[in-house]
Amino acid sequence: MNARRLILIAVPYMWLLALFLVPFLIVLKISLSDTALSIPPYTPTLDLSQGWEGLKAFWAELDFENFIFLTEDDLYWKAYLSSLKIAALSTCITLLVGYPIAYGMARADESWRPTLLMLVILPFWTSFLIRVYAWIGILSGEGYLNQFLMSLGIIGEPLTILNTNTAVYIGIVYTYLPFMILPIYATLEKMDDSLLEAAEDLGCSRISAFWLVTVPLSKSGIIAGCFLVFIPTIGEFVIPSLLGGSQTLMIGKVLWEEFFSNRDWPVASAVAVILLLILVIPIILFQRNEQKQREAEG
Amino acid sequence: MAQATKPQRAKAEAFAPWQDASTRPLIEFRGVTKRFGTFTAIDDISLDIYAKEFFALLGPSGCGKTTLMRMLGGFETPTEGTILLDGQDVAGVPPNRRATNMMFQSYALFPHLDIAENIAFGLRRAKIPKDQIAARVDEMLKLVQLTPYRSRKPHQVSGGQRQRVALARALARAPKLLLLDEPLGALDKKLRQETQFELMDIQEKTGTTFVIVTHDQEEAMTVASRVAVMDHGKLVQVATPDAIYETPNSTYVADFIGDVNIIEGAATPLGEGRYEIHWAEGATPLIGTTDEALATGAKVYLAIRPEKVAISTENPESRANAVPGTVHDIAYLGNISTYHVELANGAIVKAQTANTHRIARRDITWDDPVWLSWTDTAGVVLTR
């Protein structure tokens, strides 16, 4: 391998090393430490001036105490499970909402597609936080939704949506919808229309042609979209803390509270490390799907 | 066609249902017009296609041939007129309920299914018992010689093999009518020629009626029992390949099919269908024949195929037509040479000869004065 290629490969690896692996090792180290009333709020801290002996003492003080603590308090595994459940369910809802939109976009007249694509991306022009706050205004007891429904006479009493899990689902589906639409649209858009005509010619009705041809051919887009929604949703913090109520249990919120309210950095770090380990599985599956798709195309 | 022409192959001698008034056509187009907005793709076409025919729709791109075929498949509906398939009006019958199958130009093979599953796709939709489907798939694989490739995905086989999968898939449901949209367009020339004969074999073996759309006149001539030449949504001529070639009904057809010299002139009748054609000031008039009765001075076009024009260094007195000229260009194609000869009035006439001698012994070269000659029946006198 020549030097030029080595440098080219080294750039992304250095990037990963500096911005992913090193921070992860720091978090891992903190998760193995103990809380302390100091700055930073944990011990031991690495002091290289002590030389070899200092390093050995530092090493001896690290333990898995915080991880054991996570298994003892049922709050944590309940939070993990609840996060997984909320992420899975909202991924399904996002798929159900996103697929028809992506399908409609791909079927639309070619001159319309760039505009439709723009409209899907448009929400990103406003800050995520502001958009979530806007939902508070829509969903609250005196919010626009309740006012609208009451003015139509559909409901007599305002609905309680804000500070419930329903609000969290609405917020997640709304926020992550573009991540579902875009990969599905990409696979549907490059699909050859004559495949559908061929399916019809061979005896399929329109509906069965959709299930037998369109859906299998957009499978890689569906998988990519689902992971792009599922992975960030598990660790989601802003949406459950702004739209969810006290009963909304999500690991992102727990992590934030450990870190900022309890100032227990080691336990917070342990929560983060476990979260990462949970996320590694879907991330690997996602990468596999991408690679399989590339192979099928090549 | 009124003119008795020598059939191209033995089969054609017996097979000519279009000459038999008692045969009921499989497909009848009756005054069919198709408009897309203000554009008229098909302009009042009436056409009969008979069972077991290999019928070619030939024309340049945009002439409406694909639209005509897609109407048979059910992918387009006529704006006016009716299409009968086996005596039944097919208006409103969707593609999945028609006894037709189509082989798409892009082949449209399902990339997520292997070759056997692609062929079985239509059979599965027809609610046929499983063992029968398997038997039919095997039969089809054998027909197109793809049995060893049955579990490969379409992207894992060559273009020629993909073409055969598409053919097998379209034939699997034993349609009354198979529609082929430029079936060989994506293949290279040599493979295309081989596949043309394969297609004819399969058509004969299965006895299916084939309607093929092509812009390649050689392909249409090779495979078809009859050819319909189209232009701007109209049928210009419908006839057997030899009739189309030997007796085109217009300069458009003559020019579209093969190479042709067209000489414009004014006719003077000589009797018995023979006409003198005055084509240039001071030149000896040419002699041509036609069944049509032409008035004196009528504007006509004499169409002569290059291979029917002889080239010589001396004036051959024995032939009805002889014109002097000089060799402007020679196209050497190996087996044949085409001489581009410039006449006194500046017109270029092409003459083709077989290269029976080695090229070193060729006695005619650039800028030589030569004589072009042909018989009185070699050319066709056309009025449009």
Query: Structural class per helix/strand content of chain B?
Result: alpha+beta
CATH architecture of chain A: Orthogonal Bundle
- Please name the two chains that share the biggest interface, counting residues whose Cβ lies under 8 Å from a Cβ on the partner chain: A-B, 19 and 25 residues
Order of strands in the sheet with the most strands of chain B? 6-7-8-3-9-10
Strand segment count of chain B = 20
The poorly predicted ranges of chain B are: 1-8
* Widest sheet: strand ordering of chain A: 1-2
Distance between the termini of chain A: 24 Å
Mean pLDDT of chain A: 90
Describe this structure in words.
- The complex is a heterodimer of chains A (298) and B (384).
- Chain A is mainly alpha-helical and 298 residues long.
- In chain A, 75% of the residues lie in helices and 1% in strands.
- Chain A is built from 14 helices and 2 strands, in the order H-E-E-H-H-H-H-H-H-H-H-H-H-H-H-H.
- Chain A has helices at residues 3-31, 51-61, 65-72, 74-107, 113-121, 128-139, 144-151, 165-189, 193-201, 206-217, 219-234, 238-243, 251-261, 265-297, and strands spanning 34-35, 42-43.
- In chain A, helix 3 (65-72) crosses helix 14 and helix 9 (193-201) crosses helix 10.
- The longest helix of chain A is centred in the first third of the chain and has 34 residues, at 74-107.
- The radius of gyration of chain A is 24 Å and the shape is globular.
- The mean pLDDT of chain A is 90.
- With 384 residues, chain B is α+β, with helices and mostly antiparallel strands.
- Chain B has 9 helices and 20 strands.
- Chain B has helices at 10-14, 65-73, 115-125, 130-143, 159-171, 189-206, 217-223, 241-246, 251-256; strands at 27-36, 39-49, 54-58, 80-85, 88-89, 100-103, 177-181, 209-214, 226-231, 234-239, 261-271, 274-278, 286-289, 299-304, 310-312, 321-332, 336-343, 348-354, 369-374, 380-382.
- In chain B, strands 6-7-8-3-9-10 form a 6-stranded mixed sheet, with helices on both faces. Chain B has a 5-stranded antiparallel sheet with strand order 13-12-11-14-20.
- In chain B, helix 6 links the parallel strand 7 and strand 8 (209-214).
- In chain B, helix 3 (115-125) packs across helix 4 (130-143) and helix 3 runs parallel beside helix 5 (159-171).
- Chain A binds chain B through residues 192, 194-195, 197-205, 208, 212-213, 216-217, 219, 296, and chain B through 73-75, 94-96, 100-102, 104-106, 108-112, 121-122, 125-126, 155, 169-170, 173.
